[in-house]
Amino acid sequence: MPTESTAILLVSCPDQKGLVVSMANFVFQNNGNIVHADNHIDAEMGLFLMRVEWELDGFQIAKDEIAARFAPIAEQFKMNWSLHFSDRPQRIAIMVSKYNHCLYDLVLRNASGELPGEIALVISNHIDLEPVAKQFGIPFHFFPINRENKREQEQKELEILASHEIGLVVLARYMQVLSAEFVSTMPNRIINIHHSFLPAFIGSRPYHQAYERGVKLIGATSHYVTEHLDDGPIIEQDVIGISHRDSVEDLIRKGRDLEKITLARAVLLHLKSRVLPYGKKTVVFS
Amino acid sequence: MPTESTAILLVSCPDQKGLVVSMANFVFQNNGNIVHADNHIDAEMGLFLMRVEWELDGFQIAKDEIAARFAPIAEQFKMNWSLHFSDRPQRIAIMVSKYNHCLYDLVLRNASGELPGEIALVISNHIDLEPVAKQFGIPFHFFPINRENKREQEQKELEILASHEIGLVVLARYMQVLSAEFVSTMPNRIINIHHSFLPAFIGSRPYHQAYERGVKLIGATSHYVTEHLDDGPIIEQDVIGISHRDSVEDLIRKGRDLEKITLARAVLLHLKSRVLPYGKKTVVFS
Amino acid sequence: MPTESTAILLVSCPDQKGLVVSMANFVFQNNGNIVHADNHIDAEMGLFLMRVEWELDGFQIAKDEIAARFAPIAEQFKMNWSLHFSDRPQRIAIMVSKYNHCLYDLVLRNASGELPGEIALVISNHIDLEPVAKQFGIPFHFFPINRENKREQEQKELEILASHEIGLVVLARYMQVLSAEFVSTMPNRIINIHHSFLPAFIGSRPYHQAYERGVKLIGATSHYVTEHLDDGPIIEQDVIGISHRDSVEDLIRKGRDLEKITLARAVLLHLKSRVLPYGKKTVVFS
Amino acid sequence: MPTESTAILLVSCPDQKGLVVSMANFVFQNNGNIVHADNHIDAEMGLFLMRVEWELDGFQIAKDEIAARFAPIAEQFKMNWSLHFSDRPQRIAIMVSKYNHCLYDLVLRNASGELPGEIALVISNHIDLEPVAKQFGIPFHFFPINRENKREQEQKELEILASHEIGLVVLARYMQVLSAEFVSTMPNRIINIHHSFLPAFIGSRPYHQAYERGVKLIGATSHYVTEHLDDGPIIEQDVIGISHRDSVEDLIRKGRDLEKITLARAVLLHLKSRVLPYGKKTVVFS
Q1: B71 shares its domain with B97
Q2: Which residue among A28, B3, B112, D158 is buried most deeply as judged by most CB within 10 Å?
Q3: Would you say residue D126 lies in a domain?
Q4: C55 at interface of B, judged by CB pairs closer than 8 A
Q5: Which of 256-285 (A) contact B at CB < 8 A?
Q6: Confidence band (pLDDT; 50, 70, 90) for B21?
Q7: In terms of domains, do D50 and D184 share one?
């Protein structure tokens, strides 16, 4: 874990020879020191995916020129790519409904320095959690949503996200489906926590379904949000054992810990630029 | 874990007062020493479920009269019940197709004394695993099955199971759906291993489905077989982490360990009379 | 999980016949309905250990007379025993030093109703966490401790615990060893969280030790406090995987989740009267 | 997972700029296609550690000349390094005593193609497992060891290992401490399975110790053997939950699964050249 400021490149492109050396050369020839390079090849799709992280200290290209200088390499290899800086904290919006456990969890991790970035605002379709946001001095925006006003309210939400330069939206048990339009404005920048081991128990009552089915483990799944419900690229999953003694309420209670941890891990991985989504999947450079 | 011979009663009945004391009294008044008593109430169904295990040494009712002596109590409380003896090993049939890992696993656990009971025969719809059975001196019966002969072959299998007084059938990666007729002859006495975390990925290619979906964990589920595919009462489930580096072949390899362990645990729990199926679920007295 | 009020008896005594029936009879003959009875025999020590829980509704003995009425049975069998009521919430004191994660975790679980009982006060040898206690309206007591004043300060702490009728003390990362005298006043009523998988890495720097040793898992252990450091009866343990990429700081970060969850589970089990310590061990009736 | 033949370089050296690009260049300039490159920096030790794997197909240096051609680079950067080929299976010796579960497990994994390499011989200080080796057609060598003949017998073992060109020795529950002299002949090429979560419960009776201590999890640890007992670099660890119901025998039974899986994973990682030991630790490129 470098304490120095670093730059990170995430790239994906058709596989061919010379990709690793090209990436490494870009860093080396500009006097950079690579702290971590890792790549993956999806043989089925013929896709090369890579993450390179190097120290900015001593690097001969100024931070705001790196992208322009890397662009020709990216073009040559037809790369999808993104550039990140460890010392440029992302601005985060958290969307919630009535459950407070994931909100508290994220805010406390952020306050302790464990989760980088700045939690710039909390958005909710209910007023209930305003006191929690206020307790930590975070602006709270209330957008009640019904069938009639959904388009209009989402538009306002997008405006507020834009005006705050939000880079990541975290759905921390937000119990309202986002429209395809909303989702498409922030591709791979909205992370959701689903309270089941997807693809089991899609929908809104997974703990009840798990109880009915008599499973012996329950799970949680954090994933990027796409326009299809509970179907986005998975970042992290975890499970915990249950028994016949556990009521639905016990499942909900045990599930809260899973939800908190699985969501926090995904958010941390994303903020450290360790997740590279492609197709319906992710590469997690951990 | 008592090393002495014990008797075990598994009962389920409508909940009412006096059930625990009635069960305990039956043992005590006949001079038995209870080594373990555990009960559960399914409040939703109003159902009382209990397991009582006591030492036979000193018990004043002869083994083969216990059932008759317990019957009036069972009748009084409208109990579903079964009586088991730790020193009367069950006779087991293992049904397999072409994969050998679960077969080897069960046979070796049995040989080491870890898995009680007697593996009396191996039945297969393929000839491939005959050498494995022979290696351990277990009779192997080959019943090739196609659409035309399925009914007839299953009939022969049932006959051979009956003639060997088989008490438990283990489907150790048997890649053929048993008919409802077959299943109904041995309710809650056929255990299957499904190579996914049910109810995710029902059907015959769960690892391929898991790979396509990009999940971060894969699972295995052991359950009693009912006439509905992959829908019987679950006994045991487990999962293991995977990553983007894992190909379908890696999932299959990692899954083998899950399958072996999850199946062996379920079989052991069943053989120790620790599983009480009711409705679509099980109580596991562990 | 009964929603009705229940009584719970925890007993341990030399094993002999008739114990289960005597316990069950006490409930039944006074018109009680057992919701859960479970026993264990430690064959090596010849010890019988049992937990019985029954509904108070309809029970013919008044709550404050139950103990007196059960005493003769306890005497007959030489039982160690305790009586608990699900509707009589325990009063809890949390002792902390500078780390806030376990304190926040317990307070939030309590506020959400997940953790029963009343957190009556927070005691600390540092002033740092006073704002957290105040944020939730919990009285905070500051007792700085050094070699000279330890005896005196502990005496004051004991007085304040007594005056608040505290039934359970939780050491939520309290970085100060309690004296044997202090511990002896509350046997099996002080729960500590140790940030390692005991008995590995005893002492004050387990994450550093784990990093030095190059282990691939780190753990946490919650246990009752005895006069011997990190040696009390274990209630709950858990682990999480780490890799060569994890620095000491990463271990500390990952460990915080372990600590929170492992401590909260132990406290919940204790508050539900599901833990029966005996000798150097515990029976956890889960 | 490349199905093509690949070459793998494992290197460690003092960290400096240009290491990744030098490694990648060596492959690229000779027309190789990198399938996986991953590096790690141990900041404390100032050490750079890397694994590079590339396809041999099309690579312009003949296999048996690669080492000589890479040597100057290695010298330039003062690298410790080793070169491996995925299609050159290692020759493996398994050392056992009386327990057969790990032996069976490794042999069956090897037979199924899951574990690459050739199990060339089984060595034991007891005669008991000769039938198992014979069952699978593997030569069995019996070297009874006592205080007097230990030096002499080990010498013979080393000769037989050398004559069979053994590249990896697996101690599959070999209950005899190897001398420092023996160990020093095969540094980082002897893998042991210890039946505890090291560093807890060092020595010969970890399950008994775990039972006495009343832990709630038991573990297993696979590690390279060094001259200090149970202190070598750890490759893999795993745990499983236990309860008060588990006797020492249950711990031994549950532990067998842990031992088998933890050992097999470590052996597989080693055979795939994914483990890079340094100092008292390992980097596992997984």
Answers
A1: no
A2: A28
A3: yes
A4: no
A5: 280-284
A6: very high
A7: no
Rounded to an integer, what distance in angstroms lies between the CA atom of residue D228 and that of residue B216?
38
Q: Is the pLDDT of residue B229 over 80?
A: no
pTM above 0.90, yes or no: yes
Q: Is the pLDDT of residue B1 over 70?
A: no
- Helix B206-213 vs helix B248-271: crossing angle, to nearest 10: 130
Say yes or no: D61 and D122 in one domain.
Answer: no
Q: Is the pLDDT of residue A229 over 80?
A: no
The span from the CA of C243 to the CA of D42, in Å, is 12
Task: Say yes or no: A166 and A273 in one domain.
Answer: yes
ipTM of the complex: 0.93
* Shortest alpha-carbon distance between residue D247 and chain B (Å): 7
Same domain membership, residue D178 and residue D207: yes
Q: What is the CATH number of the domain that holds A104?
A: 3.40.50.170
In a domain, B224, yes or no: yes
Tokens of B130: 């005959």
Which of the listed residues A40, A61, A85 is the one where a domain comes to its end?
A: A85
Are C81 and C127 in the same domain?
A: no
Cβ-contact C244, D235 below 8 angstroms = no
Q: Is residue A94 a contact partner of residue A106, using CB atoms and an 8 Å limit? A: yes
Q: Is the Cβ pair C1, A108 closer than 8 Å?
A: no
Q: Write out chain D residues lying below 8 Å of B173, CB-based.
A: none
Quick one: B59 and B122 in the same domain? no
Which chains have at least 3 CB atom pairs separated by less than 8 Å from chain A? B, C, D
Q: Domain limits at C52?
A: 6-85
Chain D CB contacts of C216 under 8 Å are: 234-237, 284
Q: Is D230 a catalytic residue?
A: yes
- The 10s digit of each residue's pLDDT in D178-201 is 999 999 999 999 999 999 999 989
Please tell me the predicted confidence (pLDDT) of residue A228: 85
Number of domains in chain D: 2
- φ/ψ region of B18 (left if φ > 0, alpha if ψ in -120 to 50, else beta) reads left
> Considering B57, B230, B246, B250, which one is annotated as catalytic?
B230
CATH number reported for the structural domain that contains residue A45 in this entry: 3.30.70.260
In angstroms, rounded to a whole number, what is the distance separating the alpha carbons of residues A284 and A268? 11
Please report where in the chains the tokens 């959400």 appear, as a residue. Answer: C112
Instruction: Compute the distance between CA of residue A215 and CA of residue C191 in angstroms, rounded to an integer.
Output: 32
Same domain, A130 and A81: no
Exposed e or buried b per residue across A6-33, where buried means at least 16 C-beta atoms within 10 angstroms of its C-beta? bbbbbbbbebebbbbbbbbbbbbeeebb
